Amino acid sequence: MPNPYLPNWEYIPDGEPRVFGNRVYVYGSHDYAGSDQFCDYKLKVWSADVHDLNNWICHGDSFHTRMDRDHASDTPWTDRELYAPDVVEKDGKYYLYAYIVDSKGCVAVSERPEGPFRLVSQYRVPETSEQILKDGIFIDPGVLVDDDGRVYIYCGYLKSYMAEINAENMYEILEDSYKADIIPVDEPFGFFEGCSPRKIGDTYYLIYSPKNGNRLDYATSQSPTGPFQYRGTIIDNGVDYPGGNNHGSICQINGKYYIFYHRTTNNTVMSRRGCVERIEILPDGSIPQVEMTSLGFEASLSPYRPTSADIACVLKGGCYITERNILERAIVNLTKGCIVGFKYFDFGEDYSSKTMEFTAKIRGCGNKGKMRILIDDYHTGKEIGTSEIGPDNEIVHAVVASVTGRHSVYFVFDDEYSGYFGEFFKDRPICELESFVFHK
Q1: What are the angstrom distances between the C-alpha of 163 and each of 36, 150, 211, 334, 435?
Q2: Residues tagged active-site
Q3: Is 0.85 surpassed by the pTM of this model?
């Protein structure tokens, strides 16, 4: 399943991946297209078999702060938005930790990992705690159930915090367990928000969003209470893409490690879709930084199957993905100099052909232009062909050089206007790109 790995109409940012039994579950916030705010008033759960990551199942809504047509509210003390939850298993039960905007957070429980979750309690905090802890807001909580059964919660916005939770009830903060700046705000850590804990072997990882918010960085320790050592960046959304913010975590699925994160769409930071990349954890515990791709859970994509333009992982020059409706998405605002890229396609091993064909579905914008098709790099890569673009909606065709092997593909857009009259067409959209395919 390419990125985004959930259906195109689903917006699940802040993904916390968890493997329970033979399924991987994703718990996250819930955005929607056209929103002017982060997150919704409900949480949803998706899962897939660890042996079949191409087929994700929606388990519906799991928790609510507002009543809707099918559910009552689960939080009588507030109706604010739900942000960045986490779920852990303890003694055969599954506990949901929710951050609710400007409100005291809570813990909910279910006998099933997919929920729905029923309220257990708001966080219970010792009276001797600092006020910021007593407020019980616990922004973007991440929870760790350690091998010895002890439970820790990590959270924060602009400053990080951690505390130990009473493992007997899973909502009471233990006295004298509170610690501030578990991830410092000073460089190189640069903590900003989100704090997702994982334990791999004997090493504790905290994955978080630094001040450069389109990245996910990480730190490690030999103890759940630190001190933590800064280790670097896992992924950076801002490389050749409208960065926005980022939030996610790592997960081992069927013997392989992945980083779950999100990308912005609709020319806004509010509509965020879940994406995933394969990562490697080296013997010294380090995680080499990975690039953002179109792959998702795939090893490579087929250029001979129609590709939806909205899986692009490179967008430069002001173009962006937008959702017209539940069924249609396109890359829009494609002006002179815009670049759209996809990583990676496997073109196979046909060494007999010198040429092949390229077809794309576009929406015209009343202008004329062309789309140069390159492989491997949008500046220095080989140009394999050019497709002419007219002013109307159309299916465009081009004969291009045959390609073998695994490559990234880039489209570079240009108009056909120059001189005095060309100024009247400057910065005007050339077209909107919906999909494309290579064929022989």
Answers
A1: 33, 11, 23, 49, 49
A2: 14, 193
A3: yes
